[in-house]
């Protein structure tokens, strides 16, 4: 099952990317990101699927996921909800983000003057504040040191191993061997 889900996601990335190589590169980058993440792999994969539809490249995907993960931890908003809000932010600006507005994102991003911002500006500020070098850049690192974060990282590593075995065809080999 793990292998088939990973294969579906890899195929989705390949189809959405501007090239097959970029799709593969993005999927490999995602796998590395998941292996080090303190959030559950399944949630990250769902988020990545939605985010990649907008970004279509590995560097932007990983920087976006890093910021989304940090914001999820810092603001205590489920990753799925935050990914949806990030997509809304990318398309409609801060006005399209009901949950983030409710959590005070405007003031966190420094938008206290009441001026409407273009979606691109809002996303840039979001990535700056919640990205790896931003004010909340270490939120997921701190969460990784909790019991829940460490447990998630362990299960993410096990999932990566299972997916690697499935992709290498070893699962089929062992199934044939035991039948």
Task: Report on this structure.
The chain has 179 residues and is mainly alpha-helical. Helices cover 77% and strands 0% of the residues. It contains 11 helices and no strands. The protein has helices at 2-16, 20-36, 41-55, 58-75, 79-92, 98-102, 105-108, 119-130, 139-144, 147-168, 170-178.
What is the average per-residue confidence, as pLDDT, rounded to a whole number? 86
Largest sheet: number of strands, sense, barrel closure: none
Number of strands: 0
Order of helices and strands: HHHHHHHHHHH
How much strand? under 5%
How much helicity do the residues have?
Answer: over 70%
Radius of gyration: 18 Å
Basic shape = globular
What is the structural class?
A: mainly alpha
- Stretches with pLDDT under 50, minimum 5 residues: none
* Distance between the first and last residues' Cα: 19 Å
If helices are DSSP runs of H or I spanning 4 or more residues, what is the number of helices? 11
In short:
By secondary structure, the protein is mainly α. The protein contains 11 helices and no strands.
């Amino acid at each position: 099952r793990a292998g088939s889900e990973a294969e579906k996601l890899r195929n989705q990335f390949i189809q959405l990317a501007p090239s097959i190589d970029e799709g593969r590169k993005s999927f490999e980058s995602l796998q590395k990101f998941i292996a080090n993440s303190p959030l559950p792999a399944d949630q990250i994969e769902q988020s990545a699927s939605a985010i990649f539809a907008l970004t279509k490249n590995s560097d932007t995907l990983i920087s976006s996921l890093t910021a989304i993960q940090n914001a999820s931890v810092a603001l205590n908003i489920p990753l799925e909800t935050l990914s949806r809000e990030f997509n809304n932010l990318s398309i409609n600006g801060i006005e399209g983000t009901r949950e983030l507005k409710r959590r005070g994102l405007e003031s966190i991003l420094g938008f206290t003057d009441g001026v409407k911002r273009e979606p691109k500006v809002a996303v840039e500020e979001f990535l700056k504040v919640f990205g790896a070098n931003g004010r909340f850049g270490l939120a997921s690192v701190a969460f990784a040191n909790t019991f829940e974060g460490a447990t998630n990282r362990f299960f993410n590593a096990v999932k990566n191993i299972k997916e690697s075995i499935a992709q290498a065809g070893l699962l089929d080999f062992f199934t044939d061997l035991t039948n």
